[in-house]
Design goal:
- By secondary structure, this protein is of the alpha/beta class.
- The protein is built from 10 helices and 13 strands.
- The strands form 3 sheets. A 6-stranded mixed β-sheet has the order 6-7-8-3-9-10, with helices on both faces. Strands 2-1-4-5 form a 4-stranded antiparallel β-sheet, with helices on one face. A 3-stranded antiparallel β-sheet has the order 12-11-13, covered by helices on one side.
- β4 and β5 form a beta hairpin.
- The chain is globular.
- It starts with a strand and ends in a 5-residue tail after the last helix.
- Bound molecules: adenosine-5'-diphosphate and magnesium ion.
- Adenosine-5'-diphosphate (ADP) binds next to α1.
Length: about 280
C-alpha cells in the first residue's frame, strides 16, 4: 500500500539531509508506526507521503502511485491528521467538518457521527476558538476520516490528550484497521506504538534503525523470566525464575502455593528500553 525505496529529503537551505535513505513497505490493512524522538524526521516523512513535500529523491509510492505524479484524485482516497491542527477558529466544529467535506466529490461520513466518536457530540455548534488544545486535536482527528479513506496518515494523534481520550482515539484507530484501512502513524509515545501497531519502525536522525512487530521485539530483547514479589515474615521478597521448564520448577510451585504472592510479571522488555538499547537514544 505504501512503499519507500532509498527515500531521501533535504529541506531547501539546509546543509544536512533530513531523511537519509528510508526503505519500508506497508501492507494493506496494517497499522505501521513511525517511532522516534523529536526531530527524527517523522513529520517530514508523513508530509512526503501525502504529497506535500515534493523534492525528494529515491522512490515513494502510495497505492501504487509515485508521489511526484499524483493528481487531485489521490486526496479522495487518503485521510490526514497533521501534527498541528489546522482548523478555522471562527467556524464551529460542524462548520469546519462541513467545509472540509465540501472538498470531496464522493460520499462523505456524517460529521455528527464522527464528532460523537471522539466525544465532541455536545460541541457541534461551539466555535473552535473556544476549544482546548485537546478538543482541537480530536476535531482534527475526525477530519482525517471524512472521506472514508483507504489510507490514513496520523501525526502524533494522541499528543496532549488525557488518558481517557487517548484511549478513545486508540480504539477508533483499531476499529478503522478492522474495517481494512491502512494506517501510517507517527508517534514518540511508545505506549501508543505498543498498543496499536502491527509493526514499528525506529527512526533516528533521518535513518531507520529497525522494523519489526512490537511483540517480536519484546520477545527478542526481553528476558524469558518471571518475577514474583511475595510476602515473608511481613517483608516483601523478590525472586525471578526462568520461563523455561517453569512447570517442573518445585520452588516456583512452593511460592505459588504459599498464598503470599503480591505481584507476578514476565520480564519482556518495553519498547522504550528496546529503543534505547538499539539506537542509543531516548524517545523524548
Ligand atoms: P519529527 O516529526 O520526528 O519530530 P520533523 O520531521 O518535524 O521531526 O523534523 C526533522 C528535522 O527536519 C528537524 O531537524 C527539523 O529541524 C528539520 N525541519 C523540519 N521542518 C523543517 C523546515 N520547514 N525547514 C527546515 N528544516 C526543517
Ligand atoms: Mg513531528
Amino acid at each position: 500500500m505504501i512503499q519507500a525505496d532509498e527515500l531521501k529529503f533535504t529541506y531547501p537551505g539546509n546543509a544536512e539531509p533530513t531523511l537519509k535513505g528510508l526503505n519500508f513497505c506497508i501492507s494493506p490493512g496494517e497499522i505501521f508506526g513511525f517511532l522516534g524522538p523529536s526531530g527524527a524526521g517523522k513529520s517530514t516523512t508523513q508530509n512526503i507521503l501525502i504529497g506535500l513535500l515534493k523534492n525528494y529523491s529515491g522512490s515513494v509510492k502510495v497505492m501504487g502511485k509515485e508521489l511526484v505524479n499524483i493528481s487531485g484524485r489521490f486526496y479522495e482516497n487518503i485521510g490526514v491528521a497533521f501534527e498541528f491542527p489546522n482548523l478555522y477558529n471562527k467556524f464551529t466544529a460542524l462548520e469546519n467538518l462541513n467545509f472540509f467535506r465540501s472538498l470531496y466529490s464522493e460520499a462523505t461520513a456524517e460529521p455528527s457521527k464522527l464528532l460523537a466518536m471522539v466525544g465532541l457530540e455536545k460541541e457541534l455548534h461551539t466555535r473552535v476558538s473556544a476549544f482546548s488544545k485537546g478538543m482541537k486535536m480530536r476535531l482534527n482527528f475526525c477530519r482525517a476520516f471524512l472521506n472514508h479513506p483507504q489510507v490514513v496518515f496520523l501525526d502524533e494523534p494522541t499528543a496532549g490528550l488525557d488518558p481517557a481520550n487517548a484511549k478513545r482515539i486508540k480504539n477508533i484507530i483499531f476499529e478503522q484497521k478492522k474495517a481494512g484501512v491502512t494506517v501510517f502513524l507517527t508517534t514518540h509515545d511508545m505506549h501508543v506504538a505498543e498498543d496499536l501497531c502491527d509493526r514499528v519502525a525506529f527512526i533516528v536522525d533521518g535513518q531507520l534503525r529497525l522494523i519489526d512487530s512490537p511483540r517480536e521485539l519484546k520477545l527478542k530483547y526481553g528476558r524469558k523470566m518471571v518475577r514474583i514479589e511475595y510476602r515473608q515474615n511481613g517483608k516483601i521478597q523478590r525472586i525471578e525464575y526462568d520461563l523455561e521448564n517453569l512447570a517442573a520448577n518445585k520452588n516456583f510451585f512452593h511460592i505459588i502455593q504459599s498464598g503470599q504472592i503480591e505481584t507476578m510479571h514476565t520480564l519482556e522488555a518495553n519498547l522504550d528500553d528496546i529503543f534505547i538499547q538499539t539506537t542509543g537514544r531516548d524517545l523524548i
